[in-house]
Specification:
The structure is a single chain. 39% of the residues lie in helices and 12% in strands. It has 16 helices and 14 strands. A 5-stranded mixed β-sheet has the order 2-8-7-6-5. Strand 3, helix 5 and strand 4 (142-145) form a beta-alpha-beta unit. Helix 1 packs across helix 14. Bound molecules: ligand F0G. Ligand F0G binds next to helix 4 and helix 5. Ligand F0G binds at residues 50, 52, 99-101, 129, 131-132, 187, 191, 220, 222, 260, 262, 271, 412.
Length: 465
């Protein structure tokens, strides 16, 4: 028989985690104002809040932490990272930043403006990540979602549901003046629409369209390696190609990229801004020096640059990606076997539970996905994250709640961190909530919220009281 995937590593260091009781969790979640971001991590048994900065570094990465020097300018680890960026992504120019949103801030300061210069401007893309959208909207501009319609049907099993709808994109290009479209951004894989990949064919076509209209194309490359794996396994013509060849081809269609290295860089902190040409790099470097740090460290320590240089290579090893994506699919399949409704196909970094179908009795005004997140926490001490109305936030002009097409609970799997026994526990937790779904009829209402990115700090109370 064909041998299954197995992790291409063994475990050398472990961190203890503790199971708590439901009674303890009831107290903790109330004290956290029913916001899972406010719960202390020691009050969580299995933490699937995010796959960002939560992965396990390899012994090779830890060794690099010691080897890197801490020079303000020109550290050896900077040059190691420069080599890795060229080898894995094909870019000659880059700036380090302390994380992904900082990279976005620098890029948008250069391309939109550092203040409110975005008024009347639009940035099209495929379901922009929330900080990307936050940076666009905070400058007075609008993010326009041009994702293919099939992304919004959670049951539809299609290989590239992260794709950009070329018709929608061209409409934006036609309806706005060239100078009002500072750039287009394509997120690979698309976190907001379920960790779904974008095909090479689509990236190539978006690139050609952008070029026709003279609009720069950037990739949000937080999970670029996972996207490359899906291209290799799902797209015709790529089965025999090396992940790094696929990666370099994918980036070759873009003028640059931002990256949160906390995902496919497998480091705990860090970000990158990547550029094809020197001129754009120069424009951004002024802002990078102001906001992040000098060009050769940009908000990162020398040791972290070194760990990232190793992480980029490890994340683009096929055996690693097989076990990574394999574990996410393992959880997905378990949930399906229990009847729990999840988004299809399974995402690269997470399983997205369809909260509207799991909790059909909770009204949308009471935050369905958030309610499911709280139930999963109460049931088993499992922490996921709401991708629903709280995250969608209010319309910046009308201040009305924006109700997204999908209400999802994201169970994001940290890289190289949990075993499949943990996945079994998570699946059983969700299965138990599903079992008692008809008794869950009320959600939550907002007591306090911030004017932007409200989901991080929102305070809630049960709606029934
Ligand atoms: N882009 C994407 C696609 C992301 O998923 C994230 C972060 C960012 C940009 C911002 O990067 O956190 O390093 O500043 N996503 C995390 C998550 C937080 O949980 O999905 P950051």
């Amino acid at each position: 028989m064909e041998l299954p995937y197995a992790e291409p590593y063994r475990i050398k260091t472990v961190e203890s985690i503790r199971r708590s009781s439901r009674a303890e969790r009831e107290v903790w979640i109330a004290a956290a104002h029913y916001n899972l971001f406010n719960v202390r991590s020691e009050q969580v048994f299995i933490d699937l809040l995010t796959d960002s900065g939560t992965g396990a570094m390899s012994s090779a990465q830890w060794a690099e932490m010691m080897l890197g020097d801490e020079s303000y300018a020109g550290a050896s680890s900077y040059y190691k990272l420069k080599e890795a960026v060229k080898e894995v992504m094909g870019f000659d120019y880059f700036l380090p930043a302390h994380q992904g949103r900082a990279a976005e801030n620098v890029l948008m300061s250069a391309l939109i403006g550092p203040g409110r210069e975005g008024k009347g401007k639009v940035v099209p893309g495929n379901s922009h990540f929330d900080t990307t959208k936050g940076h666009i909207e905070n400058r007075g501009a609008h993010a326009i979602d041009c994702t293919v319609d099939e992304a919004f049907d959670p049951e539809l099993d299609r290989p590239f549901k992260g794709n950009v709808d070329l018709g929608k994109l061209e409409k934006v290009f036609k309806e706005h003046r060239r100078e009002d479209i500072p750039f287009c951004i394509v997120t690979v894989t698309c976190n907001t629409s379920g960790g779904q990949p974008v095909s090479m064919e689509n990236i190539r076509a978006v690139s050609a369209l952008c070029r026709n209209y003279g609009i720069p194309l950037f990739l949000d490359a937080a999970r670029f390696a996972e996207n490359c794996y899906f291209i290799k396994t799902r797209e015709k013509g790529y089965a025999d190609k090396d992940i790094r060849d696929i990666s370099r081809e994918m980036f070759s269609y873009a003028d640059g990229a931002t990256m949160s290295s906390k995902k496919d860089g497998i480091v705990n902190i860090g970000g990158l801004i990547l550029f094809r040409d020197e001129e754009m790099w120069r424009r951004c470097s002024t802002f990078n020096i102001m906001y992040e740090g000098f060009n050769t460290y940009g908000g990162m320590a020398g040791r972290d640059l070194g760990a990232l240089s190793v992480g980029l290579r490890e994340a683009t090893e096929l055996s690693y990606l097989e076990s990574r994506i394999g574990q996410v699919a393992y959880l997905g399949k378990k949930l399906v076997d229990y009847g729990v409704p999840v988004m299809r196909p399974f995402g690269g970094h997470a399983i997205f539970v369809d909260a509207k179908r799991l909790l059909p009795r909770v009204p949308r005004e009471e935050f369905i996905a958030q309610t499911l997140g709280i139930e999963a926490y109460l049931e088993g001490g499992v922490r996921g994250v709401e991708i629903g109305t709280l995250l969608a936030d209010r319309d910046p002009d009308t201040r009305e709640n924006r109700y997204p097409a999908l209400e999802l609970l994201r169970l994001a799997i940290p890289r190289r961190t949990y075993t499949n026994a943990h996945m079994d526990y998570v699946a059983a937790t969700l299965a138990n909530v599903y079992e008692r779904r008809n008794s869950i009829v009320h959600g939550y209402r907002i007591v306090r919220e911030a004017p932007i990115l409200r989901h991080f700090t929102v305070e809630l109370e049960p709606a029934r009281s």
